[in-house]
Amino acid sequence: MPNDIPAHARERLKGLRTAAHETGVFTSDFSVNEFLLVRKANFEPIGLCMGTCVYHVGYQFGSWTKNQEMEVLSKAMYHARELAMTRMRAEATAMGADGIVGVKLTIKRLEWDEHLLEFIAIGTGVVHGEGHKGFRAHDGGPFTSDLSGQDFWSLLHAGYRPVEMVMGSCVYHVAHRGMMAGLASAGRNVELENYTSAMYEAREIAVERMQAEAAAAHAEGVVGVDIHEGSHVWKPHVIEFFAIGTAVLPLEQEIAPERIADPILVLSVND
Amino acid sequence: MSDEPDVPEGHEARTADIEAALRAGRVPSATLARLEAVRAGRSPWVATLTPAELLAVRSHGLRPIAAIAATCWMYYGWSWTEGHAQGWQTALNRLKEEAIAAGANVVLDVKMRTVPLGVEASMDFTLIGTAARVEGLPPSDDPIVATVPALEFVKLLEADIVPTGIAVGAQFDWLNDWYGSTNQAFAGNVETTVLSQFWERIRQRAHAELRRNAAAQGNGVLAHINFGQMFKIEASGQAPRFLGRQIVVATTVDAPKSRKPANMPWGPPPWGESKARPAVPHEIGMAIDLHAGGTSLSGRPRHHQSYASNDRQGAI
Questions:
Q1: Where residue A35 falls among pLDDT bands split at 50, 70, 90?
Q2: B44 to chain A: which residues are within 8 Å by CB?
Q3: Can you list the domains of chain A with their CATH numbers?
Q4: A225 and B34 in contact by Cβ < 8 A?
Q5: pLDDT of residue A60
Q6: Is residue B265 over pLDDT 80?
Q7: Rounded to the nearest 5 degrees, what angle is found at the Cα of A62, between the Cα atoms of A61 and A66?
Q8: Which of B49, B55, B130, B304 to mutate: most A Cβ within 10 Å?
Q9: Could you say which of A131, A156, B124, B192 has the lowest number of CB atoms within 10 Å?
Q10: Quick check: A184 pLDDT over 50?
Q11: CB contact under 8 A, B158 and A215
Q12: pLDDT averaged over chain B?
């Protein structure tokens, strides 16, 4: 068990159901459907794994009239998430999990200091029912995935396995418009090209970083990608582009390929 | 590849390249290089699709290529309302350019987005989706833009309906109340006819524009966003003025009226080559749905956040 896990966390992990401790309890944040489908996929939940990081985001001032990446802030947002995820993964390793499903990554503002952000990663550690280690990530540690239990089952039956939650962040300062520019376009609808290009550059940087992580994890592709925008503690005109998804690899041996039925299309009569 | 684009290094060069590309109607070099690397299999594919939708990949030969996005940031020097039509249209054209660069036939799961930066008298119009290729079909120079997720796309295809794009109708008008018709201070229950007619006129025009815009892309639309606002502007000593605006956005579909068997790349239709196709070829049965989430066409989860203030009126 890694040394850097706090004593009380170690106590909690010891009480979980493992191969050595079969009468322990398992903890999870699964819904009923999720629980059933994770079991159907031949995995068992063993325990919730968590990682927290309170981070003081440093200072950087964007030039009023300039589009630019705020590297200090980009690094802060990335590093803090990375720390929270690493701690979560250390807990999963300690409990002997093969992977973590349903990872939720949240950011909270702490009220008394606008530079403090709390990053929380939480997910359910799972083990393969027959002790198959082939589902672990390329470094031998547990895989991580933000996919729900249902999605996990679907992914395995689509012939893929999750490897790693991958992400890319770019915090960007969008320039302010000069007074003269405002006058020149009065009475007309025009595109603000410098703003558009700011969005393009920021998004491209975030996506490229995520893709580089996926390539480093030797993934074939990335599913469930979301590219979203958020403003956390910063002045107006500063925005974070954040790309996140689950990197996947094809299964070495497909699960009963002859039994993978074509999906049944459902026309719901309830909505 | 020998025709690999030169990727500009550094912020200045990159920005200059992006702006030149947008003006010339081409894809920025950095994005182009990324799309070509994925297309050639040199870097991982990226999809906004869910794992369940990868099953559709398997069964229907849809291959995700890359997550693509397009933006147009409009300044409303003339008209806020018309700016919305222009903004979405420009973004739509740019999204198609990226899809072409990725070698796609279709862009799936297209979401309409706006960043929460309150920049005066302007707004960004962003479309994000997954460029995909249908196995057995050559890359298209006019890719389909589908605002539905992959599963609903497949569902529509099986019923021989193709979601083709996004249509917008946006109209506004001013009303000067010279005769005080809207002043009903001591009236009882009575219709404010002037404003009813004012609204009716704007809405009719917005929907007429939606129909014109949709007709160029398909023969029907599904799932409107209906966004309307009316403002009263008062100045002392002047008659009150009213501004009304209506924006309608919808997914266009192409649903053939004749029911000839479709020739899909994944084989003959299940109801047989020679028979007229049924409108929906599937049996209806009862099922317990393990995926509890909603779909974009039913409005859950929200598939756009650009008109969050009154999206209860409709969804896309």
A1: confident
A2: 211, 214-215, 219-222, 247
A3: 7-250 (3.30.110.70)
A4: no
A5: 79
A6: no
A7: 165
A8: B55
A9: A131
A10: yes
A11: no
A12: 81
Res. A208 pLDDT band, cuts 50 70 90: very high
Give per-residue pLDDT as tens, A147-160: 988 899 989 888 89
Per-position DSSP letters for A98-164, written without gaps between them: SEEEEEEEEEEE-TT-TTEEEEEEEEEEEEETT---TTS-TTSS-EE----HHHHHHHHHTTEEEEE
**ipTM for the predicted complex:** 0.75
Q: Which amino acid is at A148?
A: S
**Helix, strand, coil % over all residues of chain A, rounded to 5:** 30, 30, 40
- Output the six-digit token pair for B178: 């010279």
Cis omega (within 30 of 0) on the bond before B301? yes
Q: Is the pLDDT of residue A70 over 50?
A: yes
Cα–Cα distance, B6 to B32 (Å, whole number):
10
